[in-house]
Amino acid sequence: MALIQKDFVSAVTYNSLPTIQEVANVPQQHATDIRDLRLLLAKHEVPESVSIRLIHRHYDIADGEAMVFRDVTLPAHGTVEVMRATPIAAAQFHGMNFLVSSASQLQAYEYTTEATVDISKYGTFIAEFVEIVVERKLQHRFGLSINHCSEIVVRTDRTEFEFPEEKCTITIPINLPLPEATYEVNIVTAWGALDTKSKPKQALRTQTRCSHADSPPPDTPPPDAPPPKECQEDCAKEDGAEGGLKRVAPTRTKCSHAGYVPMGDCRDEFAKEDGMRFDGRIIQSGTPFHGLLSNLMEVW
Q1: What angle do CA 113, 186, 15 make, to 5 degrees?
Q2: How many C-beta neighbours within 10 Å does residue 190 have?
Q3: Which of 29, 182, 237, 280 has the most CB atoms in a 10 Å sphere around its CB?
Q4: Nearest to 151 by CA among 48, 259, 248, 29
């Protein structure tokens, strides 16, 4: 049987993957599994561009679509990375993030427009990786990620935002204009080989943002701290769930028409007059980040 499943992942399968919020505690709960998989990377000496991936999704896709990463160069700002649903027939894509399918094969579930390492050259590694994942029932927990660069890029100098209105994520270098600060939850999403004889590779992180951010309390936590207890409770309450942090779309935002008002009353007029919606807030016209978003939407 082939080790790698070549066809595109179905929308049904992709949409069944957990969201980033649902796997926030997985790294702590499966620390031993992560260690074993990292040791497997080192044992087989796979390229440093291959890492263990925390499987998650940000949005659903439709039939005939795939989630695709691509770099977008903005004339006035530089390069940002965008991931969005794209028609499969739009271009040639290369597997970037892989899961273990129901057929016990490695299958790409997210893609990139850039060429990546040919993982099929490492058949023994793939076979052992799939065996561990299946035996431990980790199919919706861990997969593989292949960076198109020669080494794992540690993105401590980049911040990822969800852009629900455009059904995409945008990863932006922190030296570019950013929106106002929000509470952040740092979640490790990828791990390199663990070599016990040398310093381990640093893990990759992504930031999930809480929407309770219009007016942070006076004792605002530092960037690496989790949201305050009252914010976590509000998130859980609004999502109708207990425990864990859920990202929710705010029902109220600060509006120049009448202070705090329900968004449904003036969303269209507000967006037209004052800016655009992004990451659960309004980005006002004339701000540096509004300029970056406008530049991005013109280019892509």
Answers
A1: 50
A2: 25
A3: 280
A4: 48
